[in-house]
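Morning!

This is the sequence you dropped in the shared folder:
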Amino acid sequence: MSFRWVTVTGWVVWSVTVACLLAGISLAWREVVMLGVALALVSLLGLTVLRRRTLLAVAFDAEVYRVLPGSAAQVRLRLVSPARRATSATDLDIPVGARTVTERVPRVNVGAVHETMLTVEAPRRTVIPLGPISVVRRDPFGLYRRSVALPGTAKVVVHPTTATLPPLSAGFVRDLEGEASRDLTDSDLSFHALREYVPGDDRRHIHWKSSAKTGRFMIRQYEQTRRSRMLILLDTRLEAYADDAEFELAVSTAASLGVRALRDSRDVMFVVSRSSVSGAPVRTGRSAPASGETMSVLTSVSPARLLDEIAGIVLTTNSLPLVGLTPLAANVAADVSVVFAVTGSVAGVPEIEQASLPFGAGVEVVALRCAVESAPRLRTSGRLTLGTIGRLDDLTKLLSRNRATA
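The structure's back. Tokens below.
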């Protein structure tokens, strides 16, 4: 027995039991002694019932429940009684984020499967952990309460709202299928010219017809092609945004770009700024190599996985500004061809222009400033394209406008 099992009523009953026994024995008061014995028997009987092994098995029917803000997740629980006897009615304590929900479970027969539904409200983008579930057993007299935690957890992932964007193969990015560069290589797809063989060349690239004509071995030479790789930078500094609504707009903007790029079969690298102070409120994905604690790279193998990690992004304090984040990202993503940097309205234009400098001359940089209810604007200065977004729908308009003028 653990003292944690005893309820307030149980402590009162035990106190009265001890008082009755002591008073009855000392005063030779038989009726009081009998009352104390009766209360002691009731307490021991309730404890015997409580010590019986928990026979109910409870499990979530999925590990991840994905919903959109403003909706509700329907979480299904499967309850099984695998023992030789049926499981009596009991309670389940289910941790849902920071609160605990209690569900009353009816009697479950031997070998039967009972299903119950739990509705989890999802008003905003976040990640809500579920479980582990605890089976609560009580004695018939309300003297004890025993909670047994069961294995298994799940989570409700509230994805950010995303916009339906046009394909990025036109407009801002035009090298999806591989655009020839001026770099020459000995092995690629785009033929450039022939040159004379030198020791060490791969003989598989010898052009035999030209070699027969010239009397010297001639090697095929190619123009190196490149496939578009996109880098998305999301500024999560508290100082860059006017309010939470502006930050949510930025998150949705970056998420929309990432999802569209993955659906276009692009290589995407999604980077968020991270707090440099231990214990600061940051919740991001895995850390990028050689970036220390200043940036994080989210998993971008599929739209669902990317949105799962974006759902947990929060504003950070004491993190690097864009001018400090872009050099780190440029080192990690050396072969990037287009960069989208998403920030808030507080970030100044000179800061954004300076942040675009670490990327090479062949990299196109698009900076998007999010300011709720502002008029959408788009201007180009050199290889930097600077846009302003007031609503999420403005992102579709800006991309379509740039596509039409491209």
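Headline: The chain has four domains: 3-50, 57-158, 180-226, 229-405.

More detail when I'm at my desk.
O.
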